[in-house]
């Protein structure tokens, strides 16, 4: 993380409602600062989830699926090639099978040959499978041409998606997307896997209402491990609905009840399943699944998540682990090249828009993320859709205050024909265009972002939950913070700031900073990943940190995970 940042403390909000007696005061304070004022809000339950009946078009979707089950029709799940899409596909495969479907298969487009979603070219290849019903997961809301082609083949199409729709909807047989205009469903932040789970829940409820014996004893909660992984990996806001889903899925994983594929991925990534948290999903499990879609074939990831054979799951997990290692190598090289293009960014630079003929289209999103992390500017990275092609694929990442999909939509409105296709969210989006149009697009992109920027938006703010008493930073607190919530996007993991004396420091692993910090007569081990520099450290540091159980030392040891550090004048106390 760049050291050019400002630490600000969240406004202290007093917990006002009813809290369980066993909830530590610091956890109450942390949850209150995130909008939860009582135990029931901090830890929402599955029983409190909004009903699937609130989803627009859900009755039509359920009727399609029920007719397919009754008529033994061939259902083909069309998956996206990221972790959300893969988990959503696995949820659909498993859930439909549990509800009695006999003819269910899946297909996933090749990122380089087909591009994103249900494209006409991908539909033409699906014809070999002879589907009767195509169900999209984590895409479809923007696939007008592909859906029209599928309908021309005589297939029904059920779209399940969570992305923001455009001005018009595709001509699908049914569409379930909580972000459609006029949809009253309150959980607008569901990931694609969450929408898939809700559709299955509605189908099971309808089957039970009709006394369909196939739904008897079907426990869809066994799919929540997959829902948790896809939701966290897709970085959707963890509102109450998503936190309930994620917490339930984490409980299954910690209890060893995850599907064989996820258990194998946890093992190959070196994580302890009994202490698994959202951070482990975001930085270890999700990337290994995503790697298949970035560099190889996401069918590998889906097969890993869908199999019930532990031996096959371990073999596929090992393959995903190897692909992820290759992805890291490709990413590191591309990031180094990108950073070399923009070594310095000042206030006059509104946004970054880069293209390299040798970049891999499956990794440009990660490059954009690294540039945002380094320079705190909305960033778009482009690569050729395939070697020698004139079509470019772009992946965008944003900063708070700049809605990326709206930026691209405005370019599309002001410059018709410049963009071929686009879609996404506030913080991430994707698009395609011809290479000849890239210079015009870059100019428009920077200009429109510049209209939205202000000094406040360009300031990188790191939020702190305040100070911790020195005698309270112990193993019990570290465990309580780690396990005390479903932390993630829009409901961030707690972090605190204090001034420490630097008692010792050294480089570990060639790039990480290992520290011994002292305060009020106490000492702690600390580490800042990628934090090593050749510059000598001052005697005192203000540190933004998280107390964490020290798994390396074990026992009751605790260490401080340093998120940011800044020098403190010698006159400041520690």
| Neighbour order of strands in the largest sheet | 3-2-4-5-6
Rg on CA atoms, Å? 24 Å
**Class by alpha and beta content:** alpha/beta
Query: Considering DSSP H and I runs of 4 or more, what fraction of the residues is helical?
Result: 25-40%
Q: What is the number of helices?
A: 18
Number-wise, the strands total 17
Binned strand content: 15-25%
Distance between the termini: 24 Å
Which residue ranges are poorly predicted, with pLDDT under 50 across at least 5 consecutive positions?
none
Largest sheet composition: 5 strands, parallel
Mean pLDDT: 93
The 3D shape can be described as globular
Report on this model:
- The longest helix has 32 residues, at 310-341.
- α11 packs across α12.
- With 574 residues, this protein is of the alpha/beta class.
- The chain has a five-stranded parallel beta sheet with strand order 3-2-4-5-6, sandwiched between helices. The protein has a five-stranded mixed beta sheet with strand order 7-8-9-11-10. A five-stranded mixed beta barrel has the order 13-14-15-17-16.
- A hairpin with a 3-residue loop joins β10 and β11.
- The chain contains 18 helices and 17 strands.
